[in-house]
Amino acid sequence: MKITYEWRGDIDDAALDALHTKGIGHPAPSAGWAARLRRHSLGWGCARAGGGLVGFVNVAWGGGSHAFVLDTVVADDHRRSGVGAALVAEATRRAREAGCAWLHVDFEEDLRPFSLDACGFTPTTAGLLAPWLLGRPVPGRTIRSYLQGGVVKRRWKWMLVCSVPALGFSGLAVAALVAFVADGPTAEFWFPTKDSDSMMSARGASLSYALMAALSFELARVMSKGADRTGPADGEDPPTGAR
């Protein structure tokens, strides 16, 4: 089937949402593509086959010498046929015509051959910061849109696993407190010590377990931070489905 390419062609939000959902492997929140592209992009390329959208690339631009390849995706049944590379080649030509000196892209490890070999990008050192993870939400984005993405799911699943010991310590702290309230200052409760009976005052055990729970929750929070660096949050991130 013949592939046709368009630059700055008409955008159907629903069709582009569907293409990205298939490309990234999980539902992507509606991005309002048409309005966003007109507002922020130097241009965008569409690949069509039989009247349907089978490929897409977006070139974001600040009006200067740097432009950025984003949102590249190709339908499953058209991958490894040169569609993605053709879209990026057109994006490169258009960026050059607009006077851009640099065209940037970032990608996951499995897309390294596509980005470097097929498209001709050169590896370089770069950094990435997700403002919403630092407590500064991105304007116009909702909590629901983040929950639908992989980053939050990965982070909270990991934190839940790491929190199991903290939940156990919390339960023991509550049990010791109940024993103290029920039996008074003379109540004892199990606590791992060097003594053979491993018993101490219920009040002391409750406070000790509560402290251990607090430290465990903090450790879980710190350990879970790394989970937000394993992949894209939703369909707006750089290339996830191109081949």
Word description of this protein:
The protein has helices spanning 13-24, 33-40, 83-97, 112-118, 143-147, 150-162, 164-183, 202-224; strands at 3-7, 41-49, 52-61, 66-74, 102-104, 188-190, 199-201. It has 243 residues and is an alpha+beta fold. Strand 6 and strand 7 (199-201) form a beta hairpin. Helix 6 packs antiparallel against helix 8 and helix 7 packs antiparallel against helix 8 (202-224). Mean pLDDT is 79; it is low at 140-144, 146-151 and 227-243.
Number of strands: 7
Q: How large is the share of residues in beta strands? A: 15-25%
Would you list the SSEs in sequence order as H and E? Answer: EHHEEEHEHHHHEEH
Query: Total helix count?
Result: 8
The portion of residues assigned to helices is 40-55%
- Give start-end ranges of low-pLDDT stretches: 140-144, 146-151, 227-243
**General shape:** elongated
Compute the CA-based radius of gyration.
26 Å
Largest sheet composition: 5 strands, mixed
Provide the residue-averaged pLDDT: 79
Q: Structural class, please?
A: alpha+beta
Span between N and C termini?
18 Å
Strands of the widest sheet, in order across it, are 1-2-3-4-5
Keywords:
two-stranded antiparallel ribbon, disordered C terminus, 7 strands, 42% helix, alpha+beta, elongated, 5-stranded mixed β-sheet, 243 residues, single chain
